Amino acid sequence: MRPCVPTLFTLLLVSSVGVYGQDEEEEEEENDNWSDSILEDMKPTSKSLHCPKACTCTQEGVVDCAGVDLKEFPMDLPEFTNHLSLQNNQIQEIPPEDLTRLYKLETLNLQNNRLTSRGIPDDMFEQLENLSYLYLANNKLTLAPRFLPNTLMSADFAANYITKIYGMTFGYKPNLRSVYLHNNKLTDAGLPDNMFNQSNNVEILIMSSNFLKYVPRNLPLALYKLHLKNNKLEIIPEGAFSHLFGLRELYLQHNLLTNDGMNNETFGKLNRLEYLDLSSNSLTHIPSGLPRNIVLLHLEKNNIRSIAEDVLTQIKNLEYLLLHNNRLRARGIHPSAFLGLKKLHTLHMYNNLLEKVPAGLPRRVKTLMLLHNQITGLSKDDFNSTYIIEDLNLSYNKIMSSSVHKDAFRKLRLLKTLDMSGNKLKSLPHGLPKNLEILKLKENEIGSIPQDTLAGMSKLKELYLSFNKLKIGSIYTGAWAELSSLQLLDLSTNQLSYVPPDLPETLEYLYLQSNRIITLSDSAFESTPNIKGIFLRFNLLTPETIKESAFHGLDQLQVLDIESNLALPKVTKQKKEKETEEEEEDRKR
After folding, report:
1. Would you state the CATH architecture of domain 487-589?
2. Residues of 127-157 as b/e, b for ≥16 C-beta within 10 angstroms?
């Protein structure tokens, strides 16, 4: 039985995966796995089957010559070949007579060779009246083939040096579904006015990483995925997308787009659009008229300074809004900017200029990223309406202990992860949510853990307090006993003089490096029988101050790091040398 085209397509492409696709993660992979039956079909089934040297042929017409260091197109290919794989060779030209006699050819894979436009006659492929899949990526073409057969379904010319497309390259091909032209040298002048004339069924068009200043005209009606990222786009002409009613994914990132280069109707007719990426452009505000069905909206790395009242509220299906790396201030965000966005659960606003938590945050947000801003404090009502947040990141702001209201977190009963690292906290905040599982407070100025600030936090599994100013006496008695689920405790780079007492039984990893610990008592770890890792390097320990019995009963211990302590490496080395000498003397005796 003849293998199906999609499976054979994978078979022909498999040895070239990654050649040029690293820069274009959006390229479609039609199949990922070989079936055992296809692998079996690759074996010659007849001793009389004629096949070029170093190639593999099947009676079904599959010829695989991939990666065999061919410098010339093979002349003695079976005439009934329908799927030909020649990728990863050094072929520079194709003699027309050698190719056109393969009248049954359906798939031709020439990726990653050294083909030039001079080495491919204009009408050579046109004579292959059954050709459906043509792969010429990663060659040295400067011009697209002038004529291609109207049977073509997929054309991949990525990673060449193409500067010009002809009217019949992709025109008049009713079966054409996908075109890949990314990583070339295309400009607006190199595109015909109607590049896809009578080819209205193209669904995927990848033209990223070229030199286009305008969106190509007369795009195919059936497009559902359009990639134009990393070009020089300045303007989206009026009506450029108005006929693309089925478009679902639009990639416009890394261009030169400004708000003046588009208007309120630019995206208005894209009623099925779900993914829009406008990141890394020069927008100063969010474009108006965005369609309501967008699920994921990328606006990061622009110059956005404000969010108007009604610019987002019509996007009822919005789930992910990425606004990081802009110029937003809290006062520039209208209190009703997120009103009615009931599906919005992930909001990234990090690396902005927020001086406080913005008002009117989405009511159903679950992940809120506000790190790397200028926030100085947390008021009682900052998170009043965001009662289902699970992950809140406030790290690397300028939050001070005196400016954190004791009820700031009172509504966050579902919060699981809180990160306030890199602020100006001098003590552990009061009123932390009781359901927290991960709490990060590293790189502050915390010098104390006040009474009961950890009370009731029975679900906390990881606590990070490294790079602070904690001393044993500044931690209230029984603090660690409150944490009955704690598995990881990081107290590295503080001012502790010995291992904290009464650590929870559940603890598995204890980080105490870079403190001032001078001794390990017999009972240092008796409360942590399940511990797996103890890290004590860069303290003041010596062999004499480490009680061997301190580690008795720790059956789960996998890592004990006590290197780089005071005089410890030298003493340890001397001890080992002495033991070696004594063993040598015993052998001599």
Report:
1. Alpha-Beta Horseshoe (3.80)
2. bbeebbbbbbbbbebebbbbbbbbebbbbbb
Cβ(530)–Cβ(557) under 8 Å? Answer: no
CA-based angle 224:227:192, to the nearest 5? 95
In the chain, the largest separation of any two C-alpha atoms, in whole Å, equals 97
* Distance (Å, whole) CA 173 – CA 175: 6
Alpha carbon 379 to chain centroid distance? 34
Domain boundaries along the sequence of the chain: 487-589
Length of the chain: 589
Q: How far is CA 406 from CA 399, 430, 478, in A?
A: 14, 5, 21
119, two tokens: 């080495």
Residue 545 CA to residue 312 CA, distance in Å, equals 64
- The enclosing H or E element of 533 equals strand 533-535
Reported pTM = 0.86
Q: Which one, of 529, 563, 439, 545, lies nearest residue 497 by Cα?
A: 545
State pLDDT tens for residues 216-261: 999 999 999 999 999 999 999 989 999 999 999 999 999 999 999 9
- State in Å, rounded, how far the first CA of the chain is from the last one: 80
